[in-house]
Batch of 4 targets.
Target 1
Amino acid sequence: MTHDKSIGPLPYALGALVLACVLAVALSLAHWKSLSSLEDRVRHLAGEVMARGHAVSDQFDNTALKALLAYPSRDPCSDGAIEMMRRLSINARSLRLIGHVSNNRLMCSSYGAHGDGIPVGPPDHVSKNGFALRTAVVLPLAGNHRFVTTTHQNSGFTAFIVPGLISDVMPTASTGSFGVFGATTQRITVSRGELKMTEAWLRTPMAPGASRVFQGQGQLIVVQRSAQYDYVVYGAMPLSEMRGEWRTNALILVPLALVTGLALAALIVLLAKRRQSLANRLRQALRRNEVYLVYQPIVDLASGRWCAAEALARWRLPNGGMVPPDVFVAVAEKHGLIQDLTACVIDRFARDVAALHQRHPGFAFSINFSAHDFANADSVERLQHALAAAAIQTAQVTVEITERALIDANAVRDAIRTLRDIGIRIAIDDFGTGYSGLSYLTTLELDALKIDKLFVDTIGTDAVTKNVISHIIEIGKSMDLKMVAEGVEHEAQASYLRAHGVGCAQGWLFAKPMAVEELLGQLDREASAA
């Protein structure tokens, strides 16, 4: 984009900010997607460890132990009991050996009776369910193999498990870590990998079946507690595992973000240039007299006669297109053209009204001023001189100012007083839509109040603001202000306003805005018919 000094640096700065924000979102999304993918892998790893742990626990607790406890012999090492241990060991895929431990000695097992017993050592810890766990038991009859054992303390029946049945999980990354620890004891039973579980992690309270995800030691860690048994499994992978997928995601998302961000930045600059262009065209239009006035009649609701008209600025382009007033007025205010626009409106207003005023001296007119006009004495003086030069009675002229322009009432008070001193009336336009307090109604010298179409439209409806118009009318009455309702389109609205004491109205129900010639012709016809 070529830098255009006419619009200043702000649009370019805003465009750059939008581009930076879009890129930041793209990079964040790439990070989130890669982190989410890594979490899925770690959850799968922890889930596999949990599944193997449940398989072991189910085969001992729910199958082997129940069968042994139900065996009728009181001697846990009787021939029948040993035979049952042998049969249960053969049928259990996850149990290498089943035996009976008493006084920390294996007295018998599925391999037979062991005389005075084989020492297995004291338990490393005991679960809240009454199972004693030993994490490194070596049996002479099994060579150098180390077993993890779980002993039902009340009966002494014990399962011997090869740690590899749980820990020989092939992780999705060779650097994965995982393990099992007691939910109550916080003692690690089985582990594999470089991750060192801290005391704080082991002691984190968790409800059965719950899981947690956190980061530490450069790893993404998933901890999950068993819903059935008193142990917790964990899985972890280095955060560095995200890099490859992050690059892949970034290679897809960053170019898209660049295209989107550049498009948005270009749109911002284009709109700024277009707005600047509109300002230049308005400047030319004011010189070429492309801005003109139309007049919308104001009707006396009691008699139905046209008693006044509001002058409304219009801008027609050379190609016949129309620029809405709210657009070109905002452009004029932003680019310092509002005084020029007001001057054009005042001059055209004085020329239009002069001839009409001679033939219908009792007909009134209103003209709109912006907050800038009230803050600058030039517009007030220009209106005063224009009316005097055209011999227009100031008592027949009302200046309308929007309520939003009265946020700082002190800034407009002097201008209002100057206008009223020469006989011009002051009306508040669009009442109820601004942000100022009602206090200005008592502190400013006002003559009329115009009820905005927004509230007129609620008459006869179930809108939540339907009661606002009645409050506005009461305010106008209490302040002895003349009231004019804007945007009246239905007879039911006119009837309501008439019944509630509103004196005047304007809207398409009565007449659309028209050229001054058409207004003059209609007034002549009414005068002839009277």
Target 2
Amino acid sequence: MQRNLKRLAAETYDLLIVGGGINGLAAAWDATLRGLKVALVEKSDFGGQTSSATLKIVHGGLRYLQHLDFVRMRESIRERSTLLRIAPHLVSPLPFLVPTYGHLLTGKEAMSAAMLINDLVSYDRNRGLPDSARQLPPARYLSKREALELAPGIAECGLTGGVIFHDGQMYNSERLTLAFALAAAERGADLANYTAAVRLLRQDRRVIGARVRDLETGAEFDVRAAVTANMTGPWSDLLIGLLERPDPPRRVVRSQGIQLVAPLLYPRVAVAVPSVYKDPDAILARGNRNFFITPWRGVSLIGTTDTVYEGDPDDFRITDRDLHAFIDEINQSLPGAQLRREQVPFAFGGLRPITEKNIDTGSKVARKYEIYDHAADLGVAGLFTVIGVKYTTCRLLAEKVVALAFRKLGRPAPAAVTAHTPLAGGRIARWDAFEREVVAAAPAGVSPKTMCHLAHSYGTAYGVMLDLVKAQPAAAARLPGSDEVIAAEVLHAVRAEAALHLTDVALRRTDLGSQGHPGRAALAACADLMARELGWTVAQCAAELAAAEQRFQFVA
């Protein structure tokens, strides 16, 4: 997968997708599998904005039970199973502990009933999952002693025990997002990162594509398509503004969500902790909403916040004040944590849709995806906007988007096949056997831990790294400070995964910086490898290092 801007300028497409987050990439994959000629442009890197802000949980929709929204529950349960099936290298089961208190809606009786309903609603959660390593067991109930053994430090006053249920967890959310891009490109989609739409092209009352700018060179060209899908997430209203003027007003209101990387608090389970925020729409409110403390590869991920963000989404940054505020909330809700700012090496976050009716009273995130056909509301044909709200249901949303594209093209839509088509690297029958096979294939100088990491990150494509090592033995070297990431991954990211900048590799193609600053030596080694591949000058290399350093810092 590489940018081919000459091809984008020369071709006429059935579908142009503006926005290369998880929803746009999933739609590109679905559309190519159903025979459409697809182009996609993204102004930053693939999955570099909201999609990278996930807590890495694949939710089965248990929270929808509070709203008695069984339709959304069923959707989420099906899509959780789908991701476990089509990307078994990147998604696996994770147990969650919900402590119970007293005998009302937060008590064991109410939660036991909720778990029973959840198990009934998700009766088919393991259908199509023959691999037991990817199956989700039913809920089980814990005594107070068992709950405290799993999660010491949770509030003990009124504690009666807890319940355990299972959801999915991503090994690497950025690699999962990229797997959709790679799968789409493999089937013929033309994808370009760092390519921004600057104007929507119109012919009378119809949009016929977009004028785009290559942010690497400043060059502009037209991408023409019969149908254009606006899938830019927090930037969606700004893109619509390009219908009328090249620089639309930039006051938008969104919800800001932040996740923290912290020391490993609970290694065996994710723990739901009530926060001080209350959900005003919950029909069966247990009280405050939960945030989650999840074990992830030797650290805890804690999230998510939900606060109003006003302003240009391009200006979104996590501040030190944001971190202190969230740490204070965690310590209020979980006194045993006693988390300190210096224990938080990294945080990541993004913007999400917010329901306009609640702007003045809070930042209630939208729960339902929306598709707006602008032939109906703006009188402009050939354009529609898609607002996705949940990573888990990206494939289902893409299915609906592509069905609409076919209707707009006046063509019958073939049946979607993405629910049973493995993503890039995902054709794995039994995970345990596959992992053993990968470890056994280790060449000299590559550790079993690195081989396990390659199995998770690349799935069946792990052999490409070994081919690089065979051709260039120095590519087997681990980057400084990392016990997993090898030089071959950096080379592969540049040569085959459209990585153009140091942050693309450090944060999205590899795990080098996923838990915080990997160290100056690691960034320098990565930059040196990229400089040789991309021909960076000394000044360009220094600029890339400075930009990466800034990404790991938080403004006051």
Target 3
Amino acid sequence: MTVLRSRLDTASPQFAAGREAMLAKLAEIGAEHEKALAGGGPGYVDRHRSRGKLLARERIELLLDPDSPFLELSPLAAWGSDYPVGASVVTGVGVVEGTECVVVANDPTVRGGATNPWSGKKTLRALEIAEQNRMPLINLVESGGADLPSQKEIFIPGGRLFRDLTRFSAAGIPTLALVFGNSTAGGAYVPGMCDHVVMIRERSKVFLGGPPLVKVATGEESDDESLGGAEMHARVSGLADHLAEDEHDAIRIGRRIVARLNRRKAGPAPAAVAEPAYDAEELLGVVPSDLKSPFDPREVITRVVDGSDLDEFKPGYGTSLVTGWARLHGYPVGLLANAQGVLFSEESQKAAQFIQLANRADTPLVFLHNTTGYMVGRDYEQGGIIKHGSMMINAVSNSRVPHLSVLLGASYGAGHYGMCGRAYDPRFLFAWPSARSAVMGAEQLAGVLSIVARESAAAKGRDYSEEEDAAMREMVRNQIEAESLPLFLSGRVYDDGVIDPRDTRTVLGFCLSAVHNAPVRGTDGFGVFRT
């Protein structure tokens, strides 16, 4: 056993300050999450309940196996936009009849469940997770279709939803639609393109155009039931495969459909699980309140991996990047964790070799981010930092084993790319409340712009105002700081959620279980490594 020994001083002022800062950030994020849980607000929630209907999260709870977890995805989508936090849809991964499924549930208390630009992005991200990990997709449908004032931002990209549903079917990934209310206009194609459709008597309404549109378009008089009612679709059109009596019955039928899918995981089963030797509660104080202060990522690893056991790879070489082998909830993983922030040539070469080894061993990779990027300067440029950084990015780009990323602290510049940021298709990516991500730190970016402005003024023979420079630097610092925060990035669906550090092991374990629904295989097909 190679059990890590924690050197974290939980009695130190630095730990106390970090813990206090983390709890404050968690409280802020919790308050925003409450807005998503509130849906359209008390008035719309009460009106929905008065119609005898369940809320979106209540439907999900009944659908999932009793006392099983639900990993909600992108709960803060649309934060900072003109649309409600949560983006009128709930998405996540849960267990139905022992099978891990991706669930997409419209929230009809928010503008009738209409799809806005952010709910579109959030839904497509959930579908991407279902496709990559070959998990059944269950749609809990009650939506009036596109939010028409936003149609210019929805119509073109929204067509991908229907394309994906048909591709899932062709790939053998089961798709279900449980229709609880309206599924109109473009939304009618969701049940139309799913493998299994459940509708509810006198509740479900599925039509391309409702009675008013039909009247305008054709002059035909019709009513909801004859045009798109559940009984009509079950007995006449054949769109409905199952006719439920009420919402509970629809959920019961949905669970039975999943039970009959006969799904088997394609990846290997986990080994016996050993709990970490150290308390996850201590993760609250690991990251300093000031991200300029370094911290040892081994203090995170030892509280996350099985038995706090890590076999380090090249521990004495490229020491700003910790790499090693471990198990997490019984699954083998390779870990890459930034230690001192900056990535040098040695760290880049070490990472590239380690990623190749993980692919040879068919072992998923976990990236723990805290990097300011690749090192700059004359000596480093002459030493080949570009070609070595490119080698690491090449390895990440072409690796075929599942990647999981967690942003702990800074994740700036090309270092974000080399550590498998969003653009590099990690199967899941989460952030701690302490995380920051941008092209560079706010102070550095403001300084660069100041230097460029000074040089431009000098080249033109103009005076340079120090007062205006200070104002510009302050404005840039504030802008970049705000745009690098987890709330801002999560609101734009650049991650899959902001998580409590204490939940890191649970979240990663759940994700590892999910990725093993698909085959776990590496590759030796990397690009040309420039040496």
Target 4
Amino acid sequence: MIEMTNGTFFSRALCVAAVLGIGIAGATAAEQGPTTALTIYSSAEPGAIPPELYKPTPYGPRERSDLPGYAFVKQEREVELQQGRSTIRFTDVAAEIDPTTVSFASLTDANARVLEQNYQFDLVSRDKLMERYIDQVVTIEQVAGDTIQTFTGTLLSTSGGIILKDDKGGVQVIGQYSNAKFPELPGGLITRPTLVWDVATEKAGTHRARVTYQTGSMTWWTDYNLTFTEGRDANSGLLDVGAWVSIINRSGASYPDAKLKLVAGEVHRAPKPAYMRRGMPTALAMDAKEAGMGGFEEKAFFEYHLYTLGRATTLPDNSTKQIELFPAAHGVPCEKVMVYYGLQEGFRTFFASPMTDRNIGTECNKKVDIYLKFKNEEKAGMGMPLPAGRIRVSKLDPADQTLEFIGEDAIDHTPKDEQVLIKLGTAFDVVGERKQTDFAVDTHRDTMDETLEIKVRNHKSEPVKVIVKENLYRCLNWKIVEATHEWEKADSRTIHFPITIEKDGEVVIQYKVHYWW
């Protein structure tokens, strides 16, 4: 007799399944000394995974497929094969497996052939058990106060409640029930997702087999933790840089003592149908300078980077694990950069045709943005490929020796010897002001002239350096005809005025731009 309690999983059904050999390897697979290797890819955007994507809701766990990422699983284990054809069952596979990616190979006999392979996922559950016993006799128990009522009859329906027909032809409708009893576990139901192979070999005995497949609902990202120390002046400093890998496993399987690899680079995948499409994989990269400590070791791999953990690690299902990505770098020189971008955000664009409306772009943004800039080079204590990820910056408060958070940003993949620019926020004591002082359009000659004035004030007790950024957005053709300060051409439509503002001082920039079309 199989019993099932409403609202709970049924341990007796599991016991019977084990006795019957349903969904377990049984005598056909001797699971001696299995090994597991994982290569994880991520489709997470830089900045990690929002908790709402993987933390349970008040109504239960989220769908596994909500998690943006995937992994390739490689497992080796001992199996027993008979001469001729044998059936092999593997049960400890991920629930999010892509069955079209499964492969099985004997490492003992290269001539062994897989005749058929199946992925069985019709898992036993309360509803499926009830459905399997339609038109068969079952026993239903219902709690009524301190007593238990028992109903036995032929199960007619489970839709909207339990409908039974007793041996006298009467029909009973049972809304809520506490327990159900079945004479036996029906065939075809299994307790765990199972891979089944029909294998042919001439070599009987113990074989070392390798199984590989792809699973969804695994992802990883990088979190950088930086500590900023001020330098000799207000525009420089030093950084201590540390990085951690965060891995989420919701694939439906656990991976004990697994070899772990992470792939860095934009690995293309064939597009999925619209109703299944997820983000493109964004894998990450890093270098470990102390591989002997079991950290990550980086190497070039095709046009990507491969990062291998130098020790085994366990990734339980429904878990988040953090691993140090590389030893912390200390004393990395950095520069504090302030940028005044006087245009309002809505006008930070370019137009294909001349914009002759004098009021376009005249609204002023007064905030001055703060950035930290450092070069990812070896002589600065860095020089490793930095993966896309979230980067947090803190500063030590000497009053009580505590670290205080001062800003965070997301960075994209950054190769060695490239600069890293981190936006921290906006300055409190440095403000800007931008206004148009003159404007003229000559419709006969197809020309336009605009004069602008930018003021930047420093209320700090020390000098600061500021880059004043200006977009020449009104027309493709332009020329600066007058300017009170030196300027640099950043691109075809952007110029920079690098200025230094003394303590409690102000710098006023005026320039005139001539457009033609």
